[in-house]
């Protein structure tokens, strides 16, 4: 599904030199390289504050801690996503409120958000799924109307751009009160272990969060807030700083691969290719509203699981993200949920399949993958 070895080989000299520098100066925790990467990412995103942390799940949890959410507060998020989003809500004894998603772009449904709001609702967590933003303009309007916080789960959309109706463009993760991301190795910007970060333009929130990630300390051995131990180590920061200048090129390569996939599948009605939700009809280098962390098809009129088995037999990796809705996961089953409210999610889990998508995909590989799928579909 990803070719991390190929990507590394293309930037081997700079990555090796950056790692060696960290080893030689032995500043492994909160060293100069962490602060250098932080500043470079702030400049790239156009955000005032980036606070690195240990992983993307911690980033979400720390964001909620920083906002001062209390047990019993309701947090609305999407049913069709990875469990980490709802996991941290439950860990903090908040109340997760799962809602349905859009059929075309897989992102959280605006009408479902509105329907789910109660007097106990305190926050919305839109997930920018598979590489493009949820409808943030509408979400921010809802949040303003109901005095709610917005925490962007940007683990899959680093580098994507959101365009407002008036033409204003901003980077994903910098729109809500707080944004969070993951630097898991397979992400568009991935390190060689675990890593994450939190983004905000709010000076006060940034100050609170900086204490939380470091045991609640602003001064050594003075614990002013309840914190956690969640720091990005210097070696991972060095890898990320080496990769950051290449991120836009990586995302362009992903868009090129997506365009090739789309062109191959276009004639086939039972293969539904990903929709770009931001009003873009053509994938091109200039359009960065979708960065294709995953290239996810919907297979209709045939058995998706049989196709998965066939691709595996042909040596073609693929993934099903996600096979079980969160509201049906044992850990998150709740009598409050009504199956009728999750019509789209329940359908998507039967149809979606994600194909190889990474910076080293070449046209020959794509042709083999698409031809294999088309042959299967045609019977």
Defining traits:
single chain, 379 residues, alpha/beta, Aspartate Aminotransferase, domain 2, Aspartate Aminotransferase, domain 1, 2 domains, 7-stranded mixed β-sheet, 3-stranded antiparallel β-sheet, 39% helix, 15% strand
Describe this structure in a few short sentences:
This protein is an alpha/beta fold.
Task: Please give a structural write-up.
The chain is α/β, with parallel strands linked by helices and 379 residues long. The protein folds into 2 domains: 4-245, 3-Layer(aba) Sandwich (Aspartate Aminotransferase, domain 2), CATH 3.40.640; 247-378, Alpha-Beta Complex (Aspartate Aminotransferase, domain 1). The protein contains 13 helices and 14 strands. It has a 7-stranded mixed sheet, with helices on both faces. β4, α7 and β5 (149-153) form a beta-alpha-beta unit. The longest helix has 19 residues, at 247-265. It is globular. The relative contact order is 0.16. The mean pLDDT is 95.
- The DSSP helix count reads 13
| Helix proportion | 25-40%
Report the order of strands and helices.
HHHEHEHEHEHEEEEEHEEHHEEHHEH
Largest sheet: 7 strands, mixed
How many beta-strand segments? 14
**Average pLDDT number:** 95
Number of domains: 2
Q: Class of the largest domain in CATH?
A: Alpha Beta
The fraction of residues in strands falls at: 15-25%
Report the C-alpha radius of gyration, rounded. Answer: 21 Å
**How far apart lie the N and C ends?**
25 Å
The 3D shape can be described as globular
Which spans have pLDDT < 50 for at least 5 consecutive residues?
Answer: none
CATH superfamily membership of the largest domain = Type I PLP-dependent aspartate aminotransferase-like (Major domain)
Name given to the CATH architecture of the largest domain: 3-Layer(aba) Sandwich
Helix vs. strand class: alpha/beta
What topology, given as strand order, has the largest sheet? 1-9-8-5-4-2-3
CATH topology of the largest domain: Aspartate Aminotransferase, domain 2
């Amino acid at each position: 599904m990803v070719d991390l070895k190929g990507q590394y080989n293309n930037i081997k000299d700079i990555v090796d030199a950056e790692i060696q520098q960290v080893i030689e100066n032995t500043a492994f925790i909160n060293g100069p390289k962490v602060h250098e990467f932080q500043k470079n990412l702030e400049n790239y995103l156009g955000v005032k504050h980036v606070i690195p942390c240990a992983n993307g799940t911690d980033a979400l949890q720390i964001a909620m801690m920083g906002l001062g959410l209390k047990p019993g507060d309701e947090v609305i998020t999407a049913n069709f996503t990875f469990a980490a989003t709802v996991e941290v809500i439950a860990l903090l004894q908040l109340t997760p409120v799962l809602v349905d998603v859009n059929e075309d772009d897989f992102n959280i449904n605006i009408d479902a958000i509105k329907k789910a709001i109660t007097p106990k609702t305190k926050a919305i967590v839109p997930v920018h799924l598979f590489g493009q933003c949820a409808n943030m303009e509408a979400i921010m309007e809802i949040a303003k109307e109901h005095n709610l916080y917005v925490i962007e789960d940007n683990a899959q959309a680093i580098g994507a751009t959101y365009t407002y109706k008036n033409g204003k463009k901003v980077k994903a993760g910098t729109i809500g009160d707080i944004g969070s991301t993951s630097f898991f190795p397979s992400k568009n910007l991935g390190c060689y272990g675990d890593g994450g970060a939190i983004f905000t333009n709010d000076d006060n929130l940034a100050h609170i969060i900086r204490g939380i990630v470091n045991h609640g300390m602003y001064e050594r051995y003075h614990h002013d807030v309840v914190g956690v131990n969640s720091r990005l180590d210097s070696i991972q920061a060095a890898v990320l700083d080496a990769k950051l200048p290449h991120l836009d090129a990586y995302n362009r390569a992903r868009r090129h691969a997506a365009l090739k996939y789309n062109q191959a599948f276009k004639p086939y009605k039972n293969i539904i290719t990903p929709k770009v939700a931001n009003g873009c009809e053509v994938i091109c280098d200039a359009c960065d509203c979708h960065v294709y962390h995953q290239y996810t098809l919907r297979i209709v009129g045939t058995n998706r699981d049989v196709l998965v088995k066939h691709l595996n037999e042909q040596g073609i990796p693929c993934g099903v993200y996600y096979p079980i809705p969160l509201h049906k996961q044992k850990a998150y089953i709740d009598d409050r949920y009504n199956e009728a409210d999750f019509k789209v999610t329940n359908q998507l889990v039967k149809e979606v399949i994600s194909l190889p998508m990474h910076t080293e995909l070449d046209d020959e590989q794509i042709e083999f993958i698409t031809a294999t799928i088309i042959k299967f579909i045609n019977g």
